[in-house]
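To whoever picks this up:

The nightly regression suite flagged SAV-6107-like HEPN domain-containing protein as changed. Nothing in the input moved, so I suspect the structure step. Input below, exactly as stored in the fixture:
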Amino acid sequence: MVAVAVLHPDRLDGAMDLLLSAGESLAGAHMARSVPDRSAATRLAVLRAAAAVLCVRGRPTFPEARRSSLEGSGPVDVWRLLPRVAPELTEWADFFEVVLPEGGTRPGHGAAGPMSVREVDDLLRQGEDFVRIVAGLLGLSPVPVPGDLVAITPAHDPKEVRPVAHDLKEMRAGGGAG
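Regenerated output under the current build:
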């Protein structure tokens, strides 16, 4: 005899709602006109998709021994909890924990600077893949995502904007006004 897990309808409804919200966030990321806005919307989408997995597979409470090792004194980080309930998503959890940290800036922000348009667009595609994988994993319909991206112009790309002081130094060095 094979045991089949029966999901509570509320958990499945909650997961569907979270995935639909993830799709809305992805649509917002597609429409975002700046790198930080696109990154934030993508981050929200993947967090909602991860929450959908936790909604379906997570347990309402953890035994005290496991609870203390996960939580410490604060809230549980979704990227640390996700591999415990969905080991097949461990690589995704590790990836998003690194590229989409809590503060919304990537690691090494001081040295590497903010994300470029290319990096944030790649991140959006990876977020779309993750949401699609989660929907399939949970046996739910794929989330519709618009195909077109609104272009992020150089004025909205922090790597493309040069400080005014830099331009003035160039003008002075080149014999321009000043």
